[in-house]
Design a protein that fits this description.
CATH topology: Beta-Lactamase
Oligomer: single chain
Distance between the termini: 26 Å
Order of helices and strands: EEEHEEEH
Radius of gyration: 14 Å
Strand content: 25-35%
Structural class: alpha+beta
CATH architecture: 2-Layer Sandwich
Largest sheet: 6 strands, antiparallel
CATH class: Alpha Beta
Strand order of the largest sheet: 1-3-2-6-5-4
CATH superfamily: Dynein light chain 2a, cytoplasmic
Number of helices: 2
Length: about 140
């Protein structure tokens, strides 16, 4: 499990100056890394973990494109709905992306080891994390 942490100030995108603490996400089964991302720019507001397994900043920035594209399709289809979360399943990893309910321009991105992760618990853990998140 990677535990290297980088926490950056949640800036203009969040309207705050506090540091976003992603360390509670380390308790998730199969945790590899996480990021808090500004969806409009792809800029990471905070990262944790990843280590030698994955570059969290690059992965977070790239995966925001997935959410932006899906939002565009939802709009074009006039579904009158919004994304709760997205799952990208790789053979060895799960990548979970969840726009915040409190600010859907910000996304929590988590990478999990597929062999160790429990998706149901991961979704529950992300929901609980957001409730305690201070930006």
């Amino acid at each position: 499990m990677a535990t290297t942490s980088t926490q950056t100030t949640a800036s203009a995108a969040t309207g705050g100056r506090k540091k976003a603490d992603l360390t509670p996400l380390r308790e998730m089964d199969g945790y590899i890394g996480s990021a808090l991302v500004d969806l409009s720019s792809g800029m990471t507001l905070a990262t944790d973990g990843g280590g030698q397994t994955i570059d969290m900043e690059m992965a977070a920035a790239g995966n925001t494109d997935v959410i932006r594209e899906k939002r565009e399709i939802v709009t074009k289809l006039r579904l009158n709905d919004k994304i709760e979360d997205m799952l990208i399943s790789l053979y060895k990893q799960y990548h979970l992306l969840r726009p915040l309910e409190s600010n859907d321009d910000i996304c929590v991105y988590v990478v999990l080891d597929r062999a160790k992760a429990n998706l149901g618990m991961a979704k529950k853990d992300l929901n609980e994390f957001e409730k305690g998140l201070e930006l």
